[in-house]
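Protein details
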Amino acid sequence: MKFDDIDLNILAELQKNSRLSIRELSKKVNLSPPSVTERIRRLEDSGIIEEYTIKINKRNLGLTIQCIIEVTLKGTEYELAPPYIVNHPRCEYCFRVAGESCFIVVLTVFSFDEVEDFIKQISPFAMTKTKFAFAQLDVNEDIEKFFTQK
């Protein structure tokens, strides 16, 4: 699928606010509503737009502790860790990685006790290294700039 600047503008606007009406979006990208609708349908059909979602402020929910845990499996217990990790209620991300660790896990929790419990549960089959995040830096999420950077 070939993209142009209008497609990238549509994606950028939807990434900022996926609840925009077609009429509002068409004004922002200077295109007629039927044309915007057709472009969105094409982006959805091609799998570029996978879903529409909301962003939740976890701090306001009381989930104030975020940690990154490097998980290194002991032996060949590869099938044990992923189901426990990805089904854990506080797991935000789980990446299978190359290098010293097997997985990088991001947990967002209410308390340090939850981190300790997570580590205790996986310690029979994995070693861990835990890092706590003090702040999240803002990253420019402008999709147009992402695609046009060299």
